[in-house]
Amino acid sequence: MSAAIHAFARPEVPPLPPYNAGLSSDAVRARYGVSEIARLASNENPYGPSPAVARALVDLAARAGTYPDANSTALRAAIAQRTGAQPGEVVIGNGSEDILQMLCQALLSPGDRVLTQRPAFGLHEIYPRMMGAQVELLTLTPELGFDVDAWCAALARGPKVVMLANPSNPVGCMFDAADFARLLAAVPAGTLLVVDEAYYEYARLAPGYPDVLALLRAWQAAGEGRSPWIVLRTFSKAWGLAGLRVGYGIASDAALVQLLDRVRTPFNVNLAAQAAALAAWGDEAFMAQAVARTVQQREALAAQLRALAGSVWPGLRIAPSAANFLFVDLGRANAPVNEALLARGIIVKPWKEPGFETFIRVSVGTDADNARFVQALAEIAGGQG
Ligand SMILES: *Cc1c(COP(=O)(O)O)cnc(C)c1O
Fold this sequence. Notes:
Elements: H1 3-6, H2 25-32, E1 38-39, H3 51-57, H4 73-83, E2 90-93, H5 96-107, E3 113-117, H6 123-130, E4 134-138, H7 148-156, E5 161-165, H8 177-186, E6 192-196, H9 200-203, H10 212-222, E7 229-234, E8 247-251, H11 254-263, H12 271-281, H13 284-309, E9 317-318, E10 325-329, H14 334-343, E11 346-347, E12 349-350, E13 359-363, H15 367-381
Parallel strand pairs: 1-11, 3-4, 3-5, 5-6, 6-7
Antiparallel strand pairs: 2-8, 7-8, 9-10, 10-13, 12-13
Helix pairs in contact: 3-12, 4-12, 5-6, 5-11, 7-8, 8-10, 13-15
Pyridoxal-5'-phosphate is lined by residues 43, 95-97, 121, 165, 169, 196, 198, 234, 236, 242, 247.
């Protein structure tokens, strides 16, 4: 960026890191001359959305001349009904990242303190910094889990906003019910809790995964003056709609949703996105089947990787995951391994943050994609990189 342009910017903006969205399939095809791509970098659902979505989108072109419902009324009502919320407590975003941005714009001023951890979902750090907030980054335990003691101690220092992904992206670790109860006991008045459950539909199959919404509601009901909170979920992962951009939040108070409405772009969720999300939501069985399959495949993939660790790739370490991806420590620099995977048409996400340059995150794909990934690692280990 040129200095002349910088002079126009708010001081918070030029130092922000660009969001690391990874390479597109077309870019990999063009650069490496491979035709078959295994997309294992973005935690997408390889089975896509319910067939009901295609039916809902089919006659949309005829309606494209009209603005969408600015309040996503039908979708909010449907989400409220199934989650036990009031429609006024539900906010819909152009992806849940849109809601993260609204929260930061509505809540954070320069100097406010935000608590999250590293490595984490990039926007949990980038959006607060965009508003001039100070972001405290907690570290993982040596076993690649949440450091619950450190979280409780940091909460006691009274950050204004807490961004907690449960389970974590990229690690896949989770706060279980006991951990979450300890966390809640440490939340001081004046701290707003954002629980990002982007992988909720996968994680709820993991033993011990807490019903955070129920725990938060009970906590709120049990005390006067409890802090507000919001739970974020998305249609991008389990529901197979990443391309259409729909996320939702369930807030402790309708007043918080009204606050977000002040900063929300009025037509933030387009016509196709609302129709598709509503159709997908109506076919929960399809989603549940895809999720169950992915969870099984995740365990199979982890077992195959552990077999590599016990044979050709000593030092390979796999973090336990409650989500649709695995965070893998290669025990050696990730960049050359990533290049060798790309040359075979396999896209994963190499981690770049300090201390994690030996890690990659691999999404659980189809059986064929997962097998290609394992086979490729075996070849790379054998020096056929
Ligand atoms: C994928 C992801 C999101 C973003 O989801 P969108 O709804 O596509 O914006 C949010 N948080 C976490 C932790 C994620 O991994």
